UniProtKB/TrEMBL annotation:
Signal peptide (residue range): 1-29
Keywords, ordered alphabetically: Signal
Species of provenance: Acidovorax cavernicola
Record keyword Signal present: yes
Stated name of the protein: BcpO-related WXXGXW repeat protein
Region feature Disordered, mapped onto this chain: 97-124
InterPro entries per the UniProt record, alphabetical: YXWGXW_rpt (IPR024447)
Composition bias type Basic and acidic residues, residue spans: 97-113
Amino acid sequence: MKTLAVALSIGAASLLSVGALTVPTAAQAQAVITIQGPPPAPRYERVPPPRRGYVWSPGHYEWRGGRHVWVRGVYVRARPGYAYRAPEWRENNGRWEYNRGRWDRDGDGVPNRHDRRPNNPNRY
């Protein structure tokens, strides 16, 4: 019985150490959330009056805990020289992908270090 307890504790410790190595950090790329069904229709939301120096980020559904959860719209502080891309769901080969809100410098929809290149291969 004692050897079983020791074996289980060693196994649990090794699993925890592997999990500690794979914790995402802020420097890593965003994970793409992909699901099979589409999100529900967006809710109607009254947009408050414009605020100087801010951009409206509309309400949207996020995937949390295995279900869609509505996130209310908010004002986000504007960044001069950047365009704000609102969060969105896109269908891709019968699956739905969630793209978080992001800032883009050149308007091609790809926020990256190559934004000043005129012939960006990632344009759409």
